[in-house]
Amino acid sequence: MKRLMLTTAALALAGSLAACGKNGASAPPAAPASMTNTAPVAGSDMSKMDMSGGAKMAKGSGTVTGVDAKAGTLTIDHGAIPEANWPAMTMTFKAAPAVSGAVKAGDKVDFDVKLQGGVGEVTAVRRR
Questions:
Q1: Could you write out the DSSP letters of every residue in 75-112?
Q2: Which of 13, 49, 66, 77 has its CA 20 to 30 A from that of 42?
Q3: Mind listing the pLDDT tens digit for each residue in 62-79?
Q4: Which fold has domain 40-127?
Q5: pTM for the whole thing?
Q6: Measured between alpha carbons, how far apart are the two ends of the chain, in Å?
Q7: DSSP type of residue 31
Q8: Which residues have a Cβ under 8 Å from the Cβ of 57 and sit 6 or more positions away?
Q9: How far is the C-alpha of 30 from the C-alpha of 87, rounded, in Å?
Q10: Which pLDDT value is given to residue 118?
Q11: Angle at the Cα of 77 (from 124 to 85), degrees rounded to 5?
Q12: What SS3 state is found at 114?
């Protein structure tokens, strides 16, 4: 993610220099294909994240900011999740009623998340 942010910043700077008429500014290079599927910004829909391939498990910790039992979701403001290559952000996850019913907004939690097919599902949650 850091590489993506640095590449994006470099592309923006190169484009700005070219627009300003600075000599020596070349056209920004195209982003590598591996960087075209990027993580969303805080509060975005997680379904747009590239999680192709088989299911994998990850662990995270953060603060529950919302529980929607009707929709079967938990929204968590979490720290970085290295196993998923995710920076700290706020995300909405699917969660079974038994899982989402165990917490409320404001709870600080540790959680397990299953990542598969563009969807993250919290499979276990523990209040700290």
A1: EEEE--BGGGTB-SEEEEEEE-HHHHTT--TT-EEEEE
A2: 13
A3: 999 999 999 999 999 999
A4: OB fold (Dihydrolipoamide Acetyltransferase, E2P) (2.40.50)
A5: 0.59
A6: 28
A7: P
A8: 83, 112, 113, 114, 115, 123
A9: 23
A10: 64
A11: 80
A12: strand
What CA–CA distance (Å, rounded) separates 64 from 42?
14
Helix (H) or strand (E) holding 61: strand 56-68
What letter represents residue 97's amino acid? P
Residue 22 tokens, joined: 């600075």
Structure tokens given for 10: 């470099």
Per-state percent for the chain, helix, strand, coil, to nearest 5 = 25, 35, 40
Judge contact between 75 and 91, C-beta under 8 A. yes
Residues in the chain, overall count: 128
Q: Where in the chain is the domain with CATH 2.40.50.320?
A: 40-127
Amino acid letter, 124: A
In the numeric block, the tokens 């920004």 are attached to: 28
